[in-house]
Give the backbone structure.
Amino acid sequence: MTQGQVPDDTPTNLQEQILLEDAKNQPGVEIIGGTETPLRDAPRLIANYGGNPEDWYKIASNQTTIIDGAIVEIHWYRNNKTWQNVEDKIKRTYPRKVRKS
C-alpha cells in the first residue's frame, strides 16, 4: 500500500485539462466512503491530510468525455468536513475490441 501522498495526474492534452478544470468547479458524485463503506485508502489519507475515516470519500466528475478513443473522467478524494480535495486522477477507459470469429 502506498504510504505517502499520491501526486495529481497531469493532463496529456487540452481536452483533459479542460475536463479537469471543469471537475474541480463541480461538486462531483460520491463513489464510495463515509461510515457505510469506508475507503481502503482512509488510513493513508488520514496520515497525510488529517481527518477521520468517515470524513473521506472518493469522488467522480459529473461529466465524462471521449478523448482519443477513451472515455475520460476525473476522480479524486474529498474530506467532506473540510472540503479539501486531493489526489486528482484522470481515469481513461478504452473500449474492448471484439474479436471476429
